[in-house]
Structure formats: C-alpha cells, structure tokens
Amino acid sequence: MDEETALRPVREDDLDVLESLTEDQGAAGEYGWFGWWDLGRFRRRWAENRMLGEDGGMLMVVAGDERLGFVSWWRRTSGPRSHCWNMGIALLPAARGRGHGTRAHLLTARYLFAHTTLHRVEACTDVANVAERKALEKAGFLREGVTRGAIWRDGEWRDDVVYGLLRTDPLP
C-alpha cells in the first residue's frame, strides 16, 4: 500500500462513489451486485444525517486523498433486549486485493468499540467470497458458521458465512 488505509466521514462529493459501488454492476463486482433498487437512498440519507445515525452509519475508506470505497454498519437485534452491529464493505475494483479491506474492517471494528457500548460486531459474506473471508479473518473476526439460503443474489438463494468479533477478543 502506498499510503495507510484510513476511514473518514462521507462528504457530499463522495455520493457518486457510493452510488457507483452499489448501482454499477462492474464496480460492485460479483459479490456486491444485487440489482438496481432505491437509486436515491444515499442522497436522502446524506440530507437526513450525513450517513451517521444511532442505528447505523457509513464511512469512506481512503488512502491519502484516494477514495477506495466505504464501510457501513447497522444495528441488528439479537435478543429481546440486545443487539449488535452488522457491518459491510465495498471497495472500488482498483482497491481490491491490496490489503485495504482487512485494514478497513479492523478500523471499523475499533471505531465501533471505541464510540458505542455494543459488545459484538459481525459481518456476513457469500461462502464463495474467499477474498472477503480472508480479509475478515486477518482483521481478527472469527468464523462462526454458515447461514443457509440467507441472501438472494443473481437469481438464487445463497449461503452466507457469519463472522463475529467481541469487544473482549484480541485485535491484530
């Protein structure tokens, strides 16, 4: 990596990148393309809360001035009186395979543990997404199991691998 991977708040001039990574099949990639839907959602969220709220948020992944993609997290109910963060990532094609995903996952988990009281961060990915699975494991997440038929993508139900990281787990 030329410059260290970092996270920063989303700016208005980043919205085109967010839209590209979710609405352009080539940019989204094999595991990030779920079809077109709600094309104005990022602009509405930007106007509402600048992509940071109590139930979730989004930060840009950058290296210096280079925009690499984004991370996001949302509150997932895990019991009658408990919840955790579920997080995701989307990197531009040129940023993939360079270690930025591993670093972004780790930075996001550290950020969430430092600025919220939740005890668990989890991430799920397609069982065939080997690169994402390796990035999560390098970032300290533990593989916990497979959720069968959990995600609809490209005309079929697909299995997800669930990874978890607890506040008390050692971080790399």
How many DSSP-defined strands? 8
The value of Rg in angstroms is 15 Å
Total helical elements: 5
Cα end-to-end separation: 18 Å
Mean of all residue-level pLDDT scores: 95
How would you classify the quaternary structure? single chain
Give the topology string: H per helix, E per strand: EHHHEEEEHEHEE
Sequence stretches where pLDDT stays below 50 over 5 or more residues? none
Kindly name the structural category.
alpha+beta
Q: Could you walk me through the main structural features you see in this protein, from its secondary elements to its overall organization?
A:
- The protein is an alpha+beta fold and 172 residues long.
- Helix content is 27%, strand content 40%.
- It is built from five helices and eight strands.
- The longest helix is centred in the middle third of the chain and has 16 residues.
